[in-house]
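To: structure subgroup
Subject: Chain for Friday's discussion

All,

I'm putting the inputs and outputs inline so they're searchable in the archive.
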Amino acid sequence: MRPELAERRANILKKQHFNQNCGPEHEGRGMGTQQKKKRYIRVLTIAGSDSGGGAGVQADLKTIAASGCYATSVITALTAQNTLGVKAIHPVPGAFVQKQLEAVLSDIGSDAVKIGMLLNPELIELVAEQLKKFRVKNIVLDPVMVAQSGDKLLEDEAVAALKQHLIPLADLITPNLPEAAVLLDRKISHHQDLAGAVSELAQLGCANVLLKGGHLESEDCREDENYLKDKDCREAENCDDFLYIGAQRKVCVFPATRIKTVNNHGTGCTLSSAIASGLAKGEGLEEAVRLAKEYITGAIAAGARYAIGNGRGPVDHFFRFFPVADD
């Protein structure tokens, strides 16, 4: 046998011996040393299902995976939904939501949790109880109330339960302007209102608040011939987010210029899941928000190049992995 063939055969046999003695079922055997397993960074999403794939659990799973984490899910509601809106909602029974939570947290565990759509007070209380039972950390609450299409995703009586049971339990809440207006029971309509509103929201019980300014855009401004001369309208071209960090009593501003696109379905879900993934990886709150803001901005810009459905399409969650060539 030629020397090179003999060497190749010896290497193959050596590799086979290693695989037989050092595979998953033989951990610690072979070569005299214990084989240390890698550990997934685990992020759990508790949210509703979006059959159109742009928001909810589907957006969360894509975001968490794109962030390099292992995603698990608890589905709280099923929606018949597409780019035009929500056609129907089917709540998942509370007992089954509890079974999902217990199954995931008792075995797999989590390094962070993102909470989205919780339709009614019963679900809110149940989820809060389970998170306390399993001593879950890094809880990011996106208080989902209304879809981009305008369809309601939260019963009116659930707002009080949200304030009482979940907001004090969360490490960060991420309301948009309409949601913040409901939580504060007042309108937030101008850019200069945001810094005060984010501090006020922190008084609801969660020390850290990210107030998203994407809804500042006004149709009245668009129709106003003096649009560019109006200060409030000029500011509406920006979609700055304001982060209040309770431990430091400071407000951080994350500026961004609005990307003109109708493909913005699921942006809130995506942002909060990206933040949860950052916290799970050990990033500080301010850094996790900054990186998540960069991610959602890139995803919106990439998604703007696509056409899907006849309404508001999704962002491109995997733009960093599958870049689209310039047209």
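Points worth raising on Friday:
Strands lie at 42-50, 70-82, 85-91, 112-115, 139-141, 172-173, 208-212, 241-245, 250-254.
DSSP finds eleven helices and nine strands in the chain.

D.
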